[in-house]
């Protein structure tokens, strides 16, 4: 297997990096804590002194930014998300 990424893979990676950079402060922090640091929702809630529900909300918002950046429409569940 080749260690080099294809042009398409590099473009998708750049789009994802830009999406993470465009996320709002806490949305980005929660996203990175879940995806990079592999922390659980309760761990993140304790770390940032917020509720688990707030962690869920921030993560959902960050996923929406990422999905839009990757040219995907909103998930079907988005319209049912409780605000």
Automatic annotation (TrEMBL):
<dbReference type="InterPro" id="IPR013249">
    <property type="entry name" value="RNA_pol_sigma70_r4_t2"/>
</dbReference>
<protein>
    <recommendedName>
        <fullName>RNA polymerase sigma factor 70 region 4 type 2 domain-containing protein</fullName>
    </recommendedName>
</protein>
<dbReference type="GO" id="GO:0003677">
    <property type="term" value="F:DNA binding"/>
</dbReference>
<dbReference type="GO" id="GO:0016987">
    <property type="term" value="F:sigma factor activity"/>
</dbReference>
<dbReference type="InterPro" id="IPR013324">
    <property type="entry name" value="RNA_pol_sigma_r3/r4-like"/>
</dbReference>
<dbReference type="Pfam" id="PF08281">
    <property type="entry name" value="Sigma70_r4_2"/>
</dbReference>
<dbReference type="InterPro" id="IPR036388">
    <property type="entry name" value="WH-like_DNA-bd_sf"/>
</dbReference>
<dbReference type="GO" id="GO:0006352">
    <property type="term" value="P:DNA-templated transcription initiation"/>
</dbReference>
<feature type="domain" description="RNA polymerase sigma factor 70 region 4 type 2">
    <location>
        <begin position="14"/>
        <end position="63"/>
    </location>
</feature>
């Amino acid at each position: 297997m080749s260690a080099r990424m294809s042009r398409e893979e590099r473009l998708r990676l750049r789009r994802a990096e830009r999406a993470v950079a465009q996320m709002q402060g806490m949305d980005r922090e929660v996203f990175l804590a879940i995806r990079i640091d592999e922390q659980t929702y309760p761990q993140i809630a304790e770390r940032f002194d917020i509720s688990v529900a707030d962690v869920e909300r921030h993560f959902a918002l960050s996923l929406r930014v990422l999905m839009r950046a990757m040219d995907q429409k909103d998930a079907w569940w988005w319209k049912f998300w409780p605000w």
